[in-house]
Give the backbone structure.
Amino acid sequence: MLDINFIRENQKKVADSAREKGYDVDINHIIHLDNQRRTLLQDVEEKRRRRNEIANKMKGGKPSPELIKEGKDLKTELSSKETELSELEKTLKADIAKIPNIIFDDVPLGGEECSKEVKAWGEKKKEGIDHLDFATSRDWLDFERGAKVAGAKFYYLKGDLALLENALYQYGLSKVLEHGFTFMTVPDMVSSKILEGCGFNPRTSDQSDEYYIEGEDLAMIATAEMPLTGYHMDEIIDEDKLPLFYAGYSACFRKEAGTYGKYTRGLFRVHQFNKLEMYAFCLPEQSKEIHEKILAIEEDIWQGLEIPYHIINIAAGDLGSPAAKKYDMEYWSPVNQKYQEITSCSNCTDFQARAVNCRVRRKDGTIEFVHTLNGTAIPLARALVVILENYAQKDGKLKVPKVLRPYLNNREEI
C-alpha cells in the first residue's frame, strides 16, 4: 500500500498512475477522509491530555464535584471519539489499499498490446506437437479422472510425465541455489492480512482469483509469493543482512477468474499446479539492480532448456496492483506459432513491505521500509507444456533436454 503522506503530496501522480493501470480510485475522497482523521485525532489527543491533567489533580486530595463530573463526561466523550477514530482509520486504510503502486517512468503506457519487447533469444521452430494430445496418447495425463475427483481443470500426472515434472523442479532448484537463494517450503494457505498485504487487488469483483476456506480467515495461495511476502511481517531487518533471497516451492491454487479469451488448453491454465518462486527483500537503492538479476536467472534457466523466448516490459494497463514494473518472459510456441507467457518478475518497491510492516534499520539508526521483488523460476504445469511442444517426436517418444537427463537416470528419451 502507499503512504498517505506520499498520496497527499503527489495526488496527480497517484491518480494518473492508477488510471493507467486501469483502477478507478477517488483520491479526493481519500484526502477528505484523511483530513477528517487528522481533525478527529487532534480532538482525541486534546481530550487525552485533559484527562491526564484531571487525573493528576485528583491525586493526593479531595477533588471538587465539578472536576469529578468533568472527568466522567470526558471519559464518555473520549470513548466515543476513540471508537469513531478507529472506524475512520479502518475505512481510510481499506480505501488506500485499493490504490495500486506507482509505475516506473520506463513502463509503457496503454493496455496489454502496448507492452514492449526488450530482448529475444533462440530460433523459432516452425512446427511442434500438441502437448495435450501427446501426453494423453502416452497415458501420462488424465483430466477426466481429475474432473471426477475435483472438478474441471484438475488433473493427474502419471509415469514419466510426473517424473519429468520432478526433473524440471530439481533442475530449477539447482539453478536458484547456484545463484545464492535459500530454499524454503511454505504454507499453502495464508490469512487475509497476508493476502491484502501482497496487494492482489482485482480491478473488478469478478476477477478475484483465490479459493477461500469457509469459516476460516484463510485462503489457498495462488503463488509462493504470498507466504514469502509475510515471512518477515512486523520485523525490522538490520541493513547489513540485506538483500535476502528466498526460493519458495509450493502448490498454487487459482480460480483463473477474468481469463475469458485467453489460451487455456490442457495444462497451460489449470486450477492447481506446482511452482518454484524467487523472492527478494532488499534496500530501496538495490531493487532495480536485483530486478534485472532475477530476470537474468530466469533467462539462464530457460536458455539451459534451449527454449526460444522473448522478454517484454509489461504495459501499465496489464501490470497489476503491487508492481511498479514487471517483465514477462514468453516462450515461442511451435504449435500455436506465437509467444505465450511462461514466467514473470516484478519489482514491488515498498508497496508490499509497507502493508506487512517489514522494515530495515540503517547503520545510522534510521528505519524505513524494505523493497520486495518476485520472479518465477519454474511454473511446472506450464513448463511441461513447453517441453512437450518442443521435444515431442513424431515417433511418439519424447527427447529429454540435456540439462534434465541427470534427474531422469540419464535417459535421453522417454
About this structure: The chain has two domains: 4-97, 112-407.
